[in-house]
Automatic annotation (TrEMBL):
UniProtKB keywords: Ion transport, Transport
The UniProt record lists the keyword Transport: yes
InterPro entries reported for this sequence: ATPase_V1-cplx_f_g_su, ATPase_V1_fsu_sf
GO MF terms held by the record: proton-transporting ATPase activity, rotational mechanism
Protein name as it appears in the record: V-type ATP synthase subunit F
Domain of life: Bacteria
This protein's record includes keyword Hydrolase: no
Signal peptide: none
Matching Pfam families: ATP-synt_F (PF01990)
Length: 105
């Protein structure tokens, strides 16, 4: 199982490289889409880690891939600039997948 990181900052990439995860630093929407297409077609990659900022550049594409693709798994990770609302992202993803909100406010 091979991981690959798409990051918007060097610090996250450096940290992941320390544990053996390769990746790339990108900043623009088109760069995200291009690199994501390359990684999605790489049969050796099982899990794609993406920083929250990059996911926010193309949320509709990421949501569609998460719903339609079985491999590789796309996992959103917060970085040092990220917020702690990852739970809300998971809630939104599940709600989109099943068509209604499970948890009440």
């Amino acid at each position: 199982m091979k991981f690959f990181l798409l990051s918007d900052n060097v610090d996250t990439l450096a940290g992941m490289r320390l544990v053996g995860i390769e990746g790339i630093v990108i900043h623009k929407r088109q760069e995200v889409l291009d690199e994501l297409q390359k990684v999605m077609s790489d049969e050796t990659v099982s899990i794609v880690l993406m920083t929250t900022k990059l996911v926010e550049l193309c949320p509709e594409v990421i949501s569609e891939l998460k719903l339609r693709q079985t491999k590789p798994l796309i996992v959103e990770i917060p970085d040092r600039h990220g917020s702690s609302d990852i739970g809300e992202s998971i809630d939104r993803y599940v709600s989109q997948a099943i068509g209604f909100k499970i948890w009440g406010e």
